[in-house]
Write the structure tokens for this entry.
Amino acid sequence: LCSPGDVSQVWVLVLVNAGGEPFAVVQVQRRFAPEAVSHSLALAASLDAQGYSVSDIIHILMAEGGQA
């Protein structure tokens, strides 16, 4: 989760790879909405526990409000 600053003027929830490199922006918010972040994290954890691939999880999260 990145707050507004030098990189972006909005809040962004970013998935990173094992090396710590940005991978996919899965949520963008003009104003911080902790319930939306919590929902996305819980959904990602649930999908992972159900055996979904990282690619599928990213696509589902992006469909809920992210961008490439």
